[in-house]
Amino acid sequence: MMASHSAISENVPMNQPGISSPLSASPTRLHLALTAWIIVILMAGLLPLRNFVGHPHWEYIQWTIPSSHWRSFRFYFDVVANVGLFYPLGLLLARRVPLAVRRRALFIIGTGLLLSAGIEWFQVYCHNRHPSPYDIMSNVTGTALGLWTATKVFSCHMLERLLPSPHNVTQ
Question: What would the DSSP string read from start to end of the chain?
Fold first, then answer.
């Protein structure tokens, strides 16, 4: 009769030198995934850097959505793309920030807001970019949906296997 992987790992003492838990690499994997995704977000919002000119283009800011955009496929694509870009950020931050931290949701959503606002601010100083408060709202919505998914939808068993929380690792 074969023993399951989890049963074997539970019977192995973790304090022996050279023997580690299957989850011991998880904090590194989680940090790497979070860092990599933040880099992806920054690349999507800042590149190409040759657009940066150093003087503001306040006239490029789209403060309102023109009526022609409501019928445009491009507008809806941008909204879905912005939500989708920041969704993993909320998901990964939910795994990174301990459950015991007060105001956890505010911290995670605030992180998405600051990252998004910083990118939009940078775009004010770029040619060929059109910053918009609607982009910020879409990005924050994506972060919030990622947080909600991590806390409500996933049973934490599925997500724990993929990206174990560094706070649950016992050594």
Answer: -PPPHHHHHHHS-TTSTT---TTTTHHHHHHHHHHHHHHHHHHHHH--GGGB-SS--GGG---S--GGGGG-HHHHHHHHHHHHHHHHHHHHHHHHS-TTSTTHHHHHHHHHHHHHHHHHHHHHTBTT----HHHHHHHHHHHHHHHHIIIIIS-SHHHHHHS--TTS---
